[in-house]
Amino acid sequence: MNQWNGQQVYVMGLGRFGGGVGVTRYLVEQGANVTVGDLGKFEGLSGSINQLQDLINDKKVRIVLGAHETSDLDGVDSVVVNPAIPRPWENAFISHARSKGICITTEIEIAYRLLDPSKIIAVTGSAGKSTICSMIHHAFQTMKHKSLLGGNIGGSLLADVDAIKSGAIVVLELSSAMLYWLGESGALEDLPPDVGCVSNCVANHLDWHGDGQHYEDSKRVLSGFARNLVLGSGVAGWGKAVVVAMDDAVTGCSIPGKHNGFNAAIAVRAVQAMTGDGQERIENAVRSFGGLPHRLQLVHECNGVRFYNDSKCTVPDATALAIEALSPSTKIHLIVGGHDKGSDLSLISKMSTELAGLYAIGATGAGIVGAAASANSFYCEDLEKAMALIQGRVSDGDVVLLSPGCASWDQFANYEVRGNLFSELAREMQGDRV
Asked: Does residue 263 sit in the same domain as residue 301?
């Protein structure tokens, strides 16, 4: 039975990068009448709106910008909330919808309820989850198992409904916000995933959750329902599980760092739990994974200086892991800082004594440098100024590493734009010192 046919649906949050496009198109295909509301203005949302222009022209989708007005809920059967909306339990528009008896859901719940839970590997963690998901997917492809990759890693699973119905294994990256909603809706309880993985948990996204306990509680939801659980040793107490320690790291991986060997070990255990394939076969498949863009990615090398783009790193602990992956024989020039999510950045400041230079940018930059103990710490305001300063200080054998430990939203649209600018600036460094 098609639950959406003839329904009036309000999609709350389109997003500059089309976060609401996939669910909107899916709902229209199912016969729903859709209103898409966003707080932004047309200028910032034009790219996303253009992706829906055919449906707008056919009067199947209505766009409302600038505010979420309670009057737009008249006659509405369901509200689809974008998980990026912070502290939704405090949101007046969502609360009003609940008071009217309107169903509240999310795209991830809609997609999740289409899946066969026996074919789900769900992955979360404060750091490493995208790499783990991609390693799992890569292993399945290498070993000729049919699989899909979706969730927080990008792209709407609702565009792959036919593939979902074909019986493919779905590797699902779940953010803390997504897990909050899946827990609230009862989806995980109704459809427990066959395999759940939690790599680690360090307080993050406090701007969304309000405090570290709420963040951790949201992550714990997965460990409470997965039928087979793989846990990193730091969260070993979260349930009966296969526990992976750093000493279990897979050696010989194509991407650097013991932490990526640890990520690989989690991926291997997850694949093994799903398929029963031999460990050696899975490890060989995972070793050939070449890495993801913006995750400790070597983007340029010139006159003996290597440039690594780790822009996806948005927590201080991940910055520490990136430094460890490239140390101890390398002099590292580290670029850090960005949007303030409420994370404890003291770890980054303390690392300054281990570096050839610490270059801080963005909203958190001045605070990081102010707490640093090394004289080789510089507040550079933005990425261009940081790279200009670095150019005059590097020498043969050095590494320039963008591993910010912070989100990008103060100066960039997203981490990809930040990483792309770093890569572009790195390739422009052709002077005498680089």
From this structure: no
